[in-house]
# Entry
Amino acid sequence: MPLGLAAAIAAGLALPAQGRINGALGMRLGDAFAAALTSFGTGLVLMLVAAAVLPSARSGVREILPAVREGRIPWWYVGAGFLGALFVLAQTTAVGILGIAVFTVAVVTGQTVSGLLVDRVGFAQGRRRPLTGMRVIATVLTLAAVALAVAPKFVVSDAAALLALILLPVLAGFFQSFSSAMNGASALAYRSPLTATLVNFISGTAALAVAWGITIAAGGSGSTLPSAPADAWLYAGGALGVAYIALTAVLVRHLGVLVTGLGVIAGQLLGSLALDALVPVAGSAVALPTVVGTLATLAAMVLATLPWNRAQLRGR
# Structure
C-alpha cells in the first residue's frame, strides 16, 4: 500500500505540470482545440512507438478485439479517451485564465466526489468499497483542505465571472474517476496497461480531431504550431499524459478509485506548490493556508486507507 500511494502521488505530480504546459500552449495558439489535439496527438505518437517496440504492448494490441468480442469489457470502454480529451481541453481552455491553483481546486472537487461514487457502485468491474464513515470523513476533509489550499488564489470580486469557466474543470475532474476505472478494467482485459493507454489516446485524439475540424469548418482559423527550439517544452504535455494514464490504470485495480484519486490529489497539490515556488508566473504565491491545506489533504489520504471495520482492525 505505501508504494502504491507513493506511485499515485507521483502520477498526481504530472498533472499540474501538464496543466501549466497545455495552458501555455492554448494561450500561445489562441485555440484550445488545436492545443488539446496537439497534446493528445503527441501522446498518441509516443504510444504508437511503444506499441511497435515493446512485446507486451504488441501482445496487448492483439487482445483488443477479442476482449470486446468476448465481453471482457463493454465495447464503449474504448471511448474512455473521450473523457481524457475533455480533461486536456479543460486545461488548454481554463488554466491560462484561472491559473493552475484555481484549476486544481475545480478538478479536485470533481475527482473527490466521483471517486467516492465510483468505488461505492463498483463501476467498471471494480471491487465495491463500502461508503464508510472513514471514507466520507476523508472526502469531506479533502474538499475542505483543497479549498483552504487555494484560498489565497481566489479574488472574491471575480467569483461570479469565473463560475462558468470553473464548471469545465469540475466536470473534467468528475469524469476522471470514471476514465481511470474504465482504463483499469481495459488494462486487465488487454493484459497490458500500455495497450489500454494506447486505446485511450486513439479515441481521445479522434474526438479532438473531429471537434477541431468542426471549429475550422465553422469559420475558425488554423493555428501555426511553435517551432523554435526554445518552445520544445510546449509539447511535453502528451508525454506527461501517457505517464499519468498508464500509471493510474494500474493503480485503480490495487488501491481503488477513491484512494488512487486521493493520492493523485495530494500529488496535484504538491506539484502546484512546487510550480508556484520554483517556476512562478504572474500571481504565483506560496502562502501559509496553501501549505496547511496540502498537509490536511495528505492526512485525508491516510484516513481513507485505514481499515474500514473492527474485524480488519483486529487483523481478522
In short: The radius of gyration is 19 Å. Residues 2-308 form one domain. Residues 197 and 246 are 6 Å apart (CA to CA). The chain has one domain: 2-308.
